[in-house]
Input
Amino acid sequence: MTTTTGCGGTTDKDSGATPCAGTITSCDTSDTDLTADDERRKAGVDIVRTARRSNISERLTRRTRTTAVVAVLTAAVASAGCGGGGGTGSTRVVMNEQRATERAEGIVHQAVDGMSPSPTLQRTGLNPVGACLADEHGAGERRQVTLSYQLTGVPGTEAKQLVRQARDAWVRRGYTFQSSDADWSDPFPAVNMRTVPDDFWMTALTGVVDKAKGEGRAAITVTSPCFDAASPGA
Output
């Protein structure tokens, strides 16, 4: 004979045991076991809370690091727009329009004077002096010089070689690549470099004239660091 019990099972009258579902073979509802269950539940909750606090702390740390990296990158991009500041430390040179123009012309001729075949420099653009590209529009306190030339008077098929010769001349003087060397498998390559330590930026590129025939026209552009509009000689 069996009777119903409070744990949802039945009691065997002869043995007094109460079979339960799962792997537990009998129900034990003593106060001691209930207290132990409560302690285990409390310990489990504490473990979960500790894990959550640890995860939140780790996420905040990662977010702080990411914000710092973004800030550094933003500052680097902002400073790059003006092509530097004319050197740093004891080697810093006070820049003005005259000096910037003379130095930019010199960098162009460093690339062109030894070229073969020898091209003719054709100036492009109107006013070479303009606002510093790194400054906010309308500030008007700093200026920079940009000189651009097309290399004319040579066959269009020689344009790529002229760009490579410009690159080689600049490398021999210790100038560095802004990112990486040009892709010389491209029939119309471009190379971007900068001077050290005065930080003029220059580009030598091959413009497309007739893509089917592989004819182009080489061009060189040199941009100075920014300088104060009120600098002596500006």
Remarks:
- The helical segments are 31-80, 97-112, 159-172.
- The first helix runs from residue 31 to 80.
